[in-house]
Amino acid sequence: MASKKGEQKGSRGAENGGQVVGTKRRKGARRGTVVPQDLLENLARLQEDARRLADSLRLAGIALPDPPRPRIKVVVYEAEEGGYWAQVPILPGCATEGDTREELMANLREAIEGYLLCTPGNYEPQEGGVEEEIEL
Questions:
Q1: What whole-number distance in Å separates Cα of residue 15 and Cα of residue 34?
Q2: pLDDT for res 44
Q3: Three-state SS across 52-104?
Q4: Which region, left, alpha or beta, applies to residue 128 given φ > 0 means left and ψ of -120 to 50 means alpha?
Q5: Is the pTM of the predicted complex or chain greater than 0.70?
Q6: Of 6, 22, 90, 115, which residue is most buried, by most CB within 10 angstroms?
């Protein structure tokens, strides 16, 4: 099979009834993966069946469990002046405080949400903190 510059020799493409996914090309990397059309159609049918089943269960009064919430590690400190403050190791510069642990956790969720709009850098932890993991 003749190939054009940048195409992989012998590769099968969407013209064979598939869809190419993951087409970012790096030097020496594969061009993309061809997903057969019948597999894509089966996946779409399964997703629709799952949606219908969830709707039927909901109408029957059967509640599905909530999916697990993402978790993130935080380091909590007792503030010298009272209350608490915390840092998020994976999000350098993301820190907040609260008079109570409940207020601190609410402030942490808000700070993390706001921070995720920014690009993280490197984290240098301070001594004396206790690392914890909280639900977002």
A1: 10
A2: 87
A3: HHHHHHHHCCCCCCCCCCCEEEEEEEECCCCCEEEECCCCCCCEEEECCHHHH
A4: left
A5: no
A6: 115
